[in-house]
Amino acid sequence: MTEAAPTVVAVARDSGHHFSKPVRDEIMLVANHGVEGDAHAGATVRHLHDVRKDAARPNLRQVHLMHAELFDEVAADGFAVDPGMLGENVTTRGVDLLGLPEGTRIRLGSDAVVELTGLRTPCKQINGVQDGLMKRLIRTDDDGTVHRLSGVMGVVATGGVVRAGDAIEVELPDAPHRALGPV
């Protein structure tokens, strides 16, 4: 069986600070800014929780990418999740987002490039999508290791239009690699 090439499944943005984001035909990524027209775009932090702590901090969460394979996994547990419902801007298929190191560059379509900065930490608003979903998106091993499964965050290195069906290319940073941590 041949694996499909990595692709963009869906794109989403929302101008308001809502948890879920409506799926769009396309989004425009703007270098050093984020998703044009999205409430979380900007050079400095835009997430309301982070703004209250330090509004001048660099925004390492300009773009949220989520792997569609997660939707398949949680569906087996009875959860129905579609693109945009968990607040992501780009839903992917065929890329092990959680296994990539910090600084990985992901080309989306012909022009846009997102540099990964860290893991998204799920928040309790996820239970507003479906009760119990947050517990499913954070796992703790017997040794106490916490696994955050709700996607990765990044900054826009190169702008461009991104659409469902666009190809994805992954460029790893030079070694040594550092695992993604929460941002």
Task: Report what the structure shows.
Helices cover 13% and strands 31% of the residues. It has 183 residues and is an alpha+beta fold. It has an eight-stranded mixed beta sheet. Strands 4-3-12 form a three-stranded antiparallel beta sheet, with no helix packed on it. A two-stranded antiparallel ribbon has the order 9-10. It has a single domain, classed as M1 Pyruvate Kinase, Domain 3 (Beta Barrel). β9 (138-140) and β10 form a beta hairpin. The chain has four helices and 13 strands.
Query: How many β-strand runs?
Result: 13
Average pLDDT over all residues: 94
Query: What's the SSE pattern?
Result: EEEEHEHEEEHHEEEEE
Strand content: 25-35%
Q: Strand count, sense and closure of the main sheet?
A: 8 strands, mixed
Structural descriptors:
single chain, alpha+beta, M1 Pyruvate Kinase, Domain 3, eight-stranded mixed β-sheet, three-stranded antiparallel β-sheet, 13 strands, globular
